Amino acid sequence: MDLRHLRAFVAVAQAGTFTKAAQLLHMSQPPLSKQIRQLERELGTTLFVRRHDGVALTDDGAILLERAQAALSAFRDFEDFTRSSRARPLRVGIGWGLWEAVERIRSQHAKWCPDVRIAAEDLCTGRGATQEIAVDVAVIRGHLDAQLYESAPLFAEEFVALLADTHPLASRLSVKLTELAAEPLLMYNRELGPSVYDKTLALYRDAGLRPRVVGGQPPPYAQAAMMLVASREGYYVGIASPFTQSHRASGVAVVPLDEPDARLDVHIAWRKGADDRTVSEFVRSARAVFPTAQAPRSGAA
């Protein structure tokens, strides 16, 4: 999911028909319909009821609309900021759910370097190395090519279990994987979040467990996923931090995992060997916001 999908969804919801929305977006209707189908497939839910005279939002669609508009508004504010200066833009890549962390860095950076223009790049999953090189610096989780990038950890996300709030373990301060091993583990397709996906399975291997995986499920931040959890169809393993999109929702309990190394570092990364003062200044701002960041190293863990 990237900004194209959110813009397409909001346009259709506001226009009431795919034809009018396509005209507003200056595109033909088939690719617009494809983007909506992709978004529905990734979220695991239906967003529109198709009718002969147009479309109407489903209940899930109405919930998503408010959040999609808020997300687009935040990025418009970011874009407005980038147009406030005449300098060549610093291209900042943002991993999924990490906008809050980047905004804290941007706010600090604006105090120190008010004339620097920043352009945001939404880093969706499945990008290749050539696409990653298009950004000057990135706030991202997971592995990067050590031959291309240097990086430094900013903060850690902890792994959590997403349980129905009626689950016997929902009120616990923490939970061990052995206590959940007999229940269905809901897993999404790996390309939706490879770092979290791989680390989740590694935690089970390290614990000597083989989970009862139910694959092909919606990602844990989707509305359909919340319904599965609240209905006691199974549980998810997700990530959480003060700077990451929250999984908290009605009917769902978020319980930290009590396992060794149940965490995933979020890094700031930049091209290796880049002699660019604007990049180094942005990295300095990131370290000021997250003072526990360690010294740079090649690649990301």
Largest sheet: 8 strands, mixed
CATH class annotation of the largest domain: Alpha Beta
In one word, what is the shape? flat
CATH overall fold name of the largest domain: D-Maltodextrin-Binding Protein, domain 2
Low-confidence stretches: 125-130, 294-301
Order of helical and strand elements: HHHEEHEHEHEEEHEHEEEHE
Total domains, how many? 2
Q: β content, as a range?
A: 15-25%
CATH architecture of the largest domain: 3-Layer(aba) Sandwich
Distance between the termini: 24 Å
Query: Rg from C-alpha positions?
Result: 20 Å
How many helical elements?
9
**Structural class by SSE content:** alpha/beta
What is the secondary structure topology, with strand pairs?
Elements: H1 3-15, H2 18-24, H3 29-43, E1 48-51, E2 54-57, H4 59-82, E3 90-94, H5 99-112, E4 118-122, H6 129-132, E5 137-141, E6 149-164, E7 184-186, H7 194-206, E8 212-214, H8 223-230, E9 236-240, E10 252-256, E11 263-271, H9 277-289, E12 297-298
Parallel strand pairs: 3-4, 3-5, 7-8
Antiparallel strand pairs: 1-2, 5-11, 6-9, 6-10, 6-11, 6-12
